[in-house]
Design brief:
The complex is a heterotrimer.
Chain A: E1 13-15, E2 18-20, E3 30-31, E4 37-39, H1 46-65, H2 68-84, H3 86-97, H4 101-119, H5 125-129, E5 131-132, E6 139-147, E7 150-153, H6 165-178, E8 182-186, H7 192-203, E9 212-215, H8 219-228, E10 234-236, H9 242-252, E11 258-260, H10 268-272, E12 275-283
Parallel strand pairs in A: 7-8, 7-10, 8-9, 10-11
Antiparallel strand pairs in A: 1-2, 3-4, 5-6, 6-12
Helix pairs in contact in A: 2-4, 3-4, 3-7, 4-6, 8-9
Chain B: H1 16-24, H2 31-41, H3 48-61, E1 62-65, H4 73-84, E2 98-102, H5 106-115, E3 123-126, H6 137-149, E4 154-158, H7 161-165, H8 169-187, E5 192-196, H9 199-202, H10 205-218, E6 222-224, H11 236-253, E7 258-260, H12 268-281, E8 294-296, H13 299-312
Parallel strand pairs in B: 1-2, 1-8, 2-3, 3-4, 4-5, 5-6, 6-7
Helix pairs in contact in B: 1-8, 2-11, 3-12, 3-13, 4-5, 6-8, 8-10, 10-11, 11-12
Chain C: E1 21-22, E2 24-26, E3 29-31, E4 38-43, E5 48-54, H1 58-75, H2 81-97, H3 99-110, H4 114-135, E6 146-148, E7 151-155, H5 161-174, E8 178-182, H6 189-200, E9 208-210, H7 215-223, E10 229-233, H8 236-245, E11 252-256, E12 262-265, H9 271-283, E13 295-299, H10 303-314, H11 335-350, E14 354-357, E15 372-375, H12 382-385, E16 392-398, H13 401-409, E17 416-420, H14 424-433, E18 438-441, E19 460-461, H15 466-471, E20 474-476
Parallel strand pairs in C: 1-5, 7-8, 7-10, 8-9, 10-11, 12-13, 12-17, 13-16, 15-16, 17-18
Antiparallel strand pairs in C: 2-3, 4-5, 6-20, 11-19, 14-15
Helix pairs in contact in C: 2-4, 3-4, 4-5, 9-10
Classes of the chains: A alpha/beta, B alpha/beta, C alpha/beta.
Chain lengths: 286, 324, 478
């Protein structure tokens, strides 16, 4: 008897809640650790980036206005969905990086728990990151963190676990959307599959379209376009080479993008650095 | 309705509802902002020639007041002497704006002033069950009638603060209208009505603005801050809000209403601050005893001492001004 | 001639012992510049020279940075935090003691009215040191294992010379950094007086270094490899240049840059106080304020009434001798700034906005500009988009709250904004939707050491003041 032919997945981009091919029609080949063909993920162009930014900008209006409680529940929903599809992620991680089942399993667990950790932060940010300020006059004055806008993310590529791909993506994406920002995540070139599978999770987690957009391809192609795009408000450049970081800071100066890199997965800095502090004064009187 | 640059007649109020509707159109007052503006104006530094002018102007605006249970004919007579010639050693000092006394002493004051050459100094009477206003309208009208018949040409009436605070603004309005009509009738239109808002009991600046408009619409010639029996009295922000009211009322309806702060203005510095408030709020047209008075007693002596210092170049002593 | 003319009430300048020449302040001492060069600062109210200041070149910058580094490693980092704080308290007290002298110096050098330097600039500067003195030994409540960046280069503008110095130096010292500060070219005087205060306070040598010079001095200071952090207040253009120039280094920066603040007036606002707030928003400090309420957005149904009341009030603004205690608006800080204002005002006229100016009499010597209000301004006019940094107000109208927000946020800046309404919920709604770092509701141009200040978008990076301002000078240690 002939063995069954496996149905292979087409990996597309995730823009504005939809899975789309690159407008450029390009893709690139990904092999597993043993050199066997895995997939042809899409190779995003600057126009795909432009579409993703535009989706992120539009989605920001609603997402930043959503209650923190609501955002927290949606982030928690993502954890639920990820838990339900953990087997898929485990096998994908193994295929992509050749790590053991145990390591892949542990990474998926950590990634799920990281979503839960950030889910819990959304409605504590004002309490921890804000302040009521004592003014030497008759004014009530408070400072509260607010989301910045559309953030481009180049996730850390250095693996802390043997693979690290999923964890790095979650560690950079979760804090950004937790704050009420919207994201354009440019997945690590060598490991796009986990990113796109995560997009499938996001697509089924009540996350509004456009809040998280995921592109695959060659990040160095997109760096200069990210740096100069005036609708991008912040960049997590953790995964970029030193020279690309300098390039993005130089071009990003044109609209004074907030450009940061991070090391720790669990960190309130990752949330707050992409928030603006707004201080409101109001007289106290009758 | 405020229509800038268009002069209309003072609106006629025919019912409490109309009055309420009118007062609702008034802009609110922000307490902190009003206080900040008043505090800023208090930093004006008035020196040399402008200070001398301000002192003489302030003297001419003083409603020299005694409102004590212990007032006697003798006390009233010395007050009158002081009013006509504030500084016996210097005839260039102007006489005060008026003397202000209780009803039963009006006749004595009028007679004394006429006798000592002060016939151009008016007598103001605090009528209408001053200071609380807690009496029936019948009594208030009788009180007013009594004052006018005794020779008062200025009536300082109190509003019914209880009625105002309980929302019975029609009553407050009607009382002013009736008192005004009585004064007009009895004096042939010669006597003026000052309406005391007792801002210390109205508490908020929003209330001060509303009460100011209520009084102006009802026919007040002057709006006055306080009886002097309640603290706080004529604070700078309260006077500021009242000056804004008369300014806007004049701009909108072409009728100039006077303002009289009373209570708590004791020093030359206080008085000059009041004049600065007038100058930079209502404007210089109000820098006239016809439109601005200061209800005070001890203020006059401080003005005189400061005047001596300005003239002589050294600080004077209380021994050189008369105590009355 | 009005009935009540206020006679001149000049503040005496006798309290200030003005030197003819000021040296650089490096390592606790006043030293002649290696450059051998000096430049003049003038009194903008008279256009006459006030004093000479040393010009710092690269060698001087190098000396200052090294002195700050030595002070950091040898003295300042070894001092217990509480002791560090006590120096700041001392400085606060000395500033209070010498307040009038500082006010006089500031007014002579800057051209701002003595009332403002006396009642705003100097007291707030002292408050800033007092406030931050208390933070020095409580930084654990701000960041986990707080660590200073090291040597901080600070560059400040000419509009609030001493106050901006305080905003920069106080948090830097409280957090354990050492400082090289460069005051603005046209207003270095109070910074050099402050150097004396550091000596009086016994501040260890090199903890604060003050070098004077021009834009090139500032740019070279930013580039110096010995600097760990930049704190800059000034134009957005220079802020972007700084961001580029530190891109290939580990230096971090806080930037307080330009603004074009919308001041939104709803039809239910307390109108008299609103008028005061508008005046304070744009004519305070001759409009030389980055957060000035330069774009007035008025609800259309009250626009005529408001503008009339505003014009009546603005006519009362007393423009003239800054040393007169009754002066409300002083001199434009420099000939160059006056030229810039003139140029933008001309563009306003050309583009079809209607100009109204107070008919106040302006002095003949020095640099002056009458309070100016443009009505009929649209968003596309340059006077609605560009920072004028002068006493010029652009009035625009809106119909609905949504339109107000759209117009208010339609700018590359986001430093401050104002909202005037008597309705609490509307204020909160508006404040929530405005993209600006500081929202003044029913007030404007208020400052406090405890209140964070700083902008969204191209108005800069980071905050100054309050708990949040400390974050700019601290990193989390391990």
């Amino acid at each position: 008897m002939m063995s069954r032919i496996e149905v292979m997945k087409t990996y597309k981009l995730f823009i504005n809640g939809a899975f789309v091919r690159s407008e450029s029609g390009r893709s690139y080949e990904i092999k597993n650790s043993k050199g066997k063909f895995l997939a042809n993920p899409a190779q995003a162009s600057r126009k795909d980036l432009r579409d993703a930014v535009s989706a992120a900008k539009t989605a920001f209006i609603g997402w930043s206005e959503a209650t923190a409680y609501n955002r927290g529940q949606i982030l928690y929903r993502i954890a639920e969905m990820l838990e339900g599809r953990r087997d898929q992620f485990v096998s994908e991680i193994i295929a992509q990086s050749g790590v053991t089942q145990k390591i892949a399993d542990s990474e998926v667990s950590q990634a799920i728990d990281l979503w839960v950790w950030y889910a819990g932060w959304s409605d504590k940010l004002s309490s921890v990151g804000g302040n009521q300020n004592p003014i030497a006059a008759q004014f009530y004055n408070f400072t509260t963190p607010e989301p910045l806008g559309a953030i481009a993310i180049f996730p850390n590529q250095k693996a802390k676990s043997a693979s690290g791909t999923l964890l790095n993506i979650v560690a950079s994406l979760a804090p950004v959307i937790c704050a009420g920002n919207t994201a354009i995540l440019i997945a690590p070139q060598s490991a796009p599959l986990t990113a796109m599978s995560l997009a499938e999770v996001l697509a089924t987690s009540d996350l509004p379209a456009g809040v998280a957009n995921i592109l695959t391809g060659k990040s160095e192609e997109l760096v200069s376009w990210v740096g100069s795009h005036m609708e991008i408000d912040g960049v997590d450049c953790s995964g970029l080479s030193n020279s690309d970081q300098v390039a993005i800071k130089v071009s990003g100066a044109e609209n004074l993008k907030r450009i940061h890199k991070f090391a720790d997965d669990k960190s309130t800095e990752r949330i707050l650095k992409f928030m603006e502090q707004k201080t409101v004064w109001q007289p106290i009187g009758i | 309705m405020i229509s800038p640059g268009i002069s209309q007649n003072v609106p006629k109020i025919n019912s409490e509802q109309e009055l309420r509707n009118f007062l609702k159109t008034l802009s609110p007052v922000d307490q902190v902002g009003a206080q900040a503006r008043a505090a800023m104006l208090a930093t004006r530094s008035i020196k040399t020639t402008s200070k001398l002018w301000a002192i003489d102007t302030a003297i001419s605006m003083v409603d020299l007041t005694t409102l004590e249970g212990a007032d006697t004919p003798g006390k009233i007579k010395t007050l009158c002497a002081k009013a006509v010639r504030p500084d016996p050693t210097d005839s260039s000092v102007p006489h005060v704006g008026a003397v202000c006394v209780y009803n039963d002493l009006v006749a004595i004051a009028r007679k004394e002033l006429d006798a000592i050459g002060g016939s151009d100094v008016p007598v103001a009477a605090v009528a209408t069950a001053f200071p609380s206003g807690r009496a029936s309208m019948k009594v208030k009208l009788a009180d007013t009638k009594d004052a006018i018949e005794s020779g008062a040409t200025e009536i300082d009436m109190v509003i019914d603060r209880g009625a105002f605070l309980s929302g019975n603004i029609g009553l407050v309005f009607d009382e002013i209208v009736e008192i005004k009509a009585t004064i007009n009738e009895l004096s042939g239109g010669r006597a003026h009505l000052k309406v005391i808002l007792e801002t210390g009991e109205l508490v908020t600046y929003d209330n001060v603005r509303k009460a100011s408009y209520l009084a102006m619409l009802a026919g007040a010639d002057f709006i006055k801050t306080s009886t002097g029996k309640v603290n706080p009295a004529a604070t700078a922000p309260v006077v500021l809000v009242m000056l804004e009211a008369v300014r806007d009322f004049c701009h909108d309806y072409g009728r100039m209403i006077g303002v009289k702060p009373a209570g708590g203005i004791r020093t030359t510095k206080d008085a000059i601050k009041q004049l600065v408030l007038v100058n930079e709020t209502a404007g210089e047209k109000w820098l006239d005893p016809k439109y601005f008075r200061i209800g005070a007693s001890s203020l006059l002596n401080d003005l005189l001492m400061q005047r001596m210092k300005m003239k002589n170049g050294y600080y004077s002593s209380a021994n050189y001004v008369t105590i009355d | 001639m009005s009935k009540f003319e206020y006679a001149n009430a000049p503040e005496s300048s006798a309290i200030l012992n003005l030197q003819s020449r000021y040296q650089l302040f490096i390592n606790g001492k006043f030293v002649a510049p290696k450059s051998g060069k000096y430049f003049k600062s003038i009194n903008p109210a008279t256009a006459k020279e006030l004093a000479e200041f040393a010009y710092a070149n690269n060698s001087d910058i190098d000396l200052a940075v090294k002195s700050a580094r030595t002070a950091l490693t040898k003295v300042w980092s070894k001092l217990p935090a509480a002791e560090r704080g006590k120096y700041l308290f001392r400085i606060a007290r000395i500033l209070q003691e010498r307040a009038r002298e500082f006010a006089v110096a500031e007014t002579l050098d800057n051209g701002k009215p003595i009332r403002e330097s006396r009642d705003t600039d100097i007291p707030l500067a002292a408050q800033h040191f007092f406030y931050h003195g208390g933070w020095a030994d409580k930084l654990d409540f701000v960041v986990k294992n707080p660590k200073p960046y090291g040597v901080v280069a600070q560059i400040i503008p000419w509009n609030f010379p001493l106050l901006m110095l305080a905003w920069k130096i106080a948090p830097a010292l409280a957090t354990g950094n050492t400082v090289v500060l460069k005051p603005a070219e046209t207003t270095p005087l109070t910074a050099m007086l402050f150097a004396q205060v550091c000596q009086q306070a016994g501040l260890p040598d090199g903890v604060v270094n003050i070098i004077t010079g021009d834009g090139a001095t500032g740019a070279n200071l930013v580039k110096h490899p010995g600097v760990n952090k930049i704190a800059f207040t000034g134009s957005t253009e220079v802020g972007k240049a700084i961001a580029r120039s530190i891109a290939d280094s580990d230096k971090v920066a806080t930037l307080e840059l330009g603004g074009k603040a919308a001041n939104i007036v709803f039809n239910d606002a307390a109108i008299d106080e609103t008028v005061e707030g508008i005046v304070n928003g744009i004519f305070f400090n001759q409009g030389h304020v980055c957060c000035a309420g330069s774009r007035l957005l008025v609800q259309e149904d009250i626009a005529n009434e408001l503008v009339l009341k505003l014009q009546r009030r603005v006519s009362l603004i007393r423009v003239g001798d800054p040393m007169d205690k009754n002066t409300d608006m002083g001199a434009i800080n420099s000939a160059a700034q006056l030229q810039k204002i003139n140029e933008l005002v001309e563009s306003g006229n050309k583009e079809g906005a209607q100009m109204w100016q107070s008919d106040c009499k302006l002095p003949t010597n020095g640099y002056w500009f009458a309070p100016t209000i443009f009505t009929g301004v649209s968003q596309s006019h340059r006077i609605a988009r560009e920072e004028i940094f002068g006493p010029v107000l652009s009035v625009l109208t809106f119909r609905t709250p949504q339109e107000a927000i759209e117009k208010a946020n339609n700018t590359q800046y986001g430093l401050s904004a104002g909202v005037w309404s008597d309705k609490g919920s509307k204020i909160m709604w508006t404040a929530k939707h405005l993209k600006a770092g500081v929202i003044w509701a029913n007030t404007f141009n208020k400052f406090d050491a405890a209140s964070p200040f700083g902008g969204y978008k191209e108005s800069g990076w980071g905050r100054e003041g309050g708990k949040h301002g400390l974050l700019a000078y601290l990193k989390a240690g391990k």
